[in-house]
C-alpha cells in the first residue's frame, strides 16, 4: 500500500462533525467509574475524586480470542522495546508510577480518539507531538481504518500507539456480547493486518460499557480505559466558541492532576490547539508518558 508522508496533501474529506459523541450517555449502572463522569460534561469541569471502578467481570478465560489468533505472536503495537513497564493505570484511569520512589509522578497520558480521519488534521497533530517529544494513544475506529489504512500506518510509523475504539463507534454498553466481541476483535484484526500488531489499549466510545465489554476487552488482551481529563473538544464544532485553543487548554488544565488521562480527538481545532496545550502542560511541570511504559496486564 502506498504510504503518505505526513506532509503529503490528500484531498480533505469534510467530515460532518458528528460530535464525536463522548456524551454523558454512558450506562452508569454498569460502568460506575469516576473517570467517565469527570471526562464528560460534568458541570464542575473538575475531575472527580477517584471512585473505585467496578472490577471487570472475569473473562471467560477459555474463550479463544477471536482475533490475534495468528501463529506469529506479534509484539503489541504500543509496546515495548522499552522493557519493563514503569507505570500502571489506576481505577480512576489515571497513569501512576509502579514505583513511586523511582518514577516521575507528574505525567499525563495524551489520547486522540475517533481517527484516522484525514491527513490534513492528523499530520499537524503528529508533527506537534514530535516537536514536544510526546507519545500518545490514537484510539481508532475500524470503519475509518478501512477507509484510510495509510493514515493508520502513518501513526504507527511515527512511533505513536494505536488503540481500539470499536469498529463503528457505537454504545457498546447497550449491545450483546456477540456484537461487542465483533466490534472489538474486527479492530484488532484490521490493525494487525495493517501495521503488524494488534492494539493493547481499548476505550469504549461514549465511555459506554457493560460487564461484557470489560470481559471481552480482557479476553482480547486489551487494557480498558475511559479517561480522567476531558478536553471537551468534541463540543466545539461551529462558531460558538471564539478561541477554541484557549477553551481546550482551560478545560484540560481545570481538571489537570498527576496521571491525567487526557481525552482529545482528531479534530482540526484540537490540532491547532495542541502546541499551546502541550507547552502549557510542560510549563506546569508535566511530562508525557509513553504508552509503551504502561503495564497493560494490570487492569484495576
Ligand atoms: Zn469516540
Automatic annotation (TrEMBL):
Pfam families: Polysacc_deac_1. GO terms for cellular component: membrane. One of its GO terms (biological process) is carbohydrate metabolic process. This is Polysaccharide deacetylase family protein. Residues 106-289 form the NodB homology domain. Transmembrane segments: none annotated. Residues 25-83 are annotated as: Disordered. Residues 34-80 have a biased composition (Low complexity). Gene3D superfamilies: Glycoside hydrolase/deacetylase. InterPro entries: Glyco_hydro/deAcase_b/a-brl, NODB_dom, Polysacc_deacetylase_ArnD. Keywords: Hydrolase, Metal-binding, Signal. GO terms for molecular function: hydrolase activity, acting on carbon-nitrogen (but not peptide) bonds; metal ion binding. Residues 1-21 form the signal peptide.
Amino acid at each position: 500500500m502506498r504510504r503518505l508522508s505526513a506532509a503529503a496533501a490528500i484531498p480533505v474529506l469534510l467530515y460532518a462533525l458528528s460530535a464525536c459523541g463522548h456524551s454523558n450517555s454512558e450506562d452508569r449502572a454498569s460502568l460506575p467509574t469516576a473517570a467517565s463522569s469527570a471526562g464528560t460534561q460534568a458541570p464542575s469541569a473538575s475531575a472527580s475524586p477517584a471512585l473505585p471502578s467496578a472490577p471487570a467481570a472475569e473473562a471467560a478465560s477459555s474463550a479463544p480470542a477471536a482475533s490475534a489468533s495468528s501463529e506469529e505472536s506479534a509484539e503489541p503495537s504500543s509496546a515495548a522495546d522499552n522493557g519493563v513497564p514503569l507505570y500502571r493505570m489506576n481505577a480512576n484511569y489515571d497513569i501512576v508510577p509502579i514505583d513511586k520512589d523511582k518514577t516521575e509522578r507528574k505525567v499525563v497520558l495524551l489520547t486522540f480518539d475517533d481517527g484516522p480521519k484525514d491527513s490534513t488534521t492528523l499530520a499537524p497533530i503528529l508533527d506537534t507531538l514530535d516537536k514536544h517529544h510526546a507519545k500518545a494513544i490514537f484510539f481508532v475506529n475500524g470503519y475509518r481504518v478501512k477507509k484510510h489504512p495509510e493514515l493508520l500506518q502513518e501513526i504507527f510509523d511515527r512511533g505513536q500507539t494505536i488503540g481500539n475504539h470499536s469498529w463503528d463507534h457505537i454504545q457498546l454498553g447497550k449491545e450483546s456480547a456477540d456484537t461487542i466481541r465483533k466490534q472489538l476483535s474486527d479492530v484488532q484484526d484490521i490493525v494487525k493486518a495493517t501495521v503488524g500488531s494488534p492494539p493493547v489499549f481499548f476505550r469504549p466510545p461514549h465511555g459506554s460499557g457493560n460487564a461484557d465489554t470489560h470481559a471481552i476487552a480482557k479476553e482480547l488482551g486489551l487494557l480498558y480505559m475511559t479517561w480522567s481529563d476531558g478536553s471537551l473538544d468534541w463540543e466545539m464544532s461551529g462558531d460558538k466558541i471564539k478561541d477554541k485553543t484557549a477553551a481546550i487548554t482551560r478545560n484540560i488544565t481545570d481538571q489537570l492532576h498527576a496521571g491525567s488521562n487526557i481525552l482529545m480527538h482528531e479534530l482540526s481545532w484540537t490540532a491547532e490547539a495542541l502546541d499551546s496545550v502541550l507547552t502549557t502542560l510542560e510549563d506546569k511541570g508535566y511530562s508525557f508518558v509513553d504508552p509503551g511504559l504502561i503495564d497493560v496486564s494490570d487492569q484495576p
